[in-house]
């Protein structure tokens, strides 16, 4: 499996936003296509501009940041992925990007507070046994060669660069297929889409931070989807899908073999129908 430049992504229409010629799905998502996008390399600007502030803020509630997955080749922005190892009460790895907020995103017209939603970083949680670390919490360097382990890191970096590569904006409710048609991210999973939400494992006051320059920075979570879950989002709306996620306990903590909430709900509806007969 390989993922790179996607030809399409799906976003939620913003209230008051200007209409475009992009296709609008029944669930209210606007489909943006980028087949004609011309790639142009640009050296990163302001590399690591907010890294120290982000790290200090996160260590206040996640514990020590024991390591960083550094990006070797950077374009437009340099995306590091900070990792925080499991600890009591936090039995998972926490991954957070740093570098996405080095530049503001291109926010669509019509939003009430565009400057308040220009800066973001992405959050993903991985199971406790996902990485092997030494006594200092450092992950072995050769993990980058294990596609089944490293694809979530690469996907975070790709998503964090996306708005700067395409002069676009990603926010709550935006979804991204892994290609068109979407393909699984790796041979160890059938997940093939990404949805941007907010971290449910964090308290509300931890989702936003104020930078020293006065700018607001928001932490958004990444939840990986199956095709049928993405279709529910497009046809019925993000709220319908997130309600199903809440019932099933699906969130930013990655489970590569979880059942689809669509299939699960169909089975439950069928069983309920049988009990009523």
Automatic annotation (TrEMBL):
InterPro entries: SUFU-like_domain (IPR020941), SUFU_N (IPR037181). Keywords: Signal. Residues 76-259 form the Suppressor of fused-like domain. Pfam families: SUFU. Residues 1-20 form the signal peptide. SUPFAM superfamilies: Suppressor of Fused, N-terminal domain. This is Suppressor of fused domain protein. It comes from Roseibium aggregatum. The lineage of its organism: Bacteria, Pseudomonadati, Pseudomonadota, Alphaproteobacteria, Hyphomicrobiales.
């Amino acid at each position: 499996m390989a993922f790179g430049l996607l030809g399409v992504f799906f976003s939620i229409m913003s209230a008051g936003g200007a209409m475009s010629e992009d296709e609008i799905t029944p669930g209210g998502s606007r489909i943006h296509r980028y087949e004609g996008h011309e790639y142009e390399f640009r050296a990163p600007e302001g590399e690591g501009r907010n890294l120290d502030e982000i790290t200090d803020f996160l260590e206040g509630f996640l514990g020590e940041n024991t390591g960083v997955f550094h990006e070797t080749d950077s374009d437009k922005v340099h995306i590091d992925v900070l990792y925080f190892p499991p600890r009591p009460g936090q039995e998972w790895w926490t991954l957070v990007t740093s570098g996405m907020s080095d530049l503001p995103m291109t926010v669509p017209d019509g939003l009430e507070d565009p400057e308040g939603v220009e800066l973001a970083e992405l959050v993903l949680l991985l199971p406790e046994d996902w990485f092997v670390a030494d006594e200092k919490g450092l992950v072995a360097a050769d993990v980058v060669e294990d596609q089944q382990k490293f694809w979530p890191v690469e996907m975070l970096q790709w998503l964090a660069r996306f708005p700067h590569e395409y002069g676009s904006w990603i926010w709550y409710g935006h979804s991204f297929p892994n290609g068109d048609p979407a393909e699984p991210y790796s041979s160890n999973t059938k997940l093939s889409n990404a949805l941007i939400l907010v971290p449910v494992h964090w308290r509300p006051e931890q989702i936003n931070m104020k930078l020293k320059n006065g700018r607001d920075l928001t932490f958004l979570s990444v939840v990986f989807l199956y095709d049928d879950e993405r279709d529910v989002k497009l046809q019925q709306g993000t709220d319908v899908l997130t309600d199903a996620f809440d019932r099933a306990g699906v969130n930013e903590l990655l489970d590569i073999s979880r059942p689809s909430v669509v299939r699960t709900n169909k089975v439950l509806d069928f069983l309920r129908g049988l009990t009523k007969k």
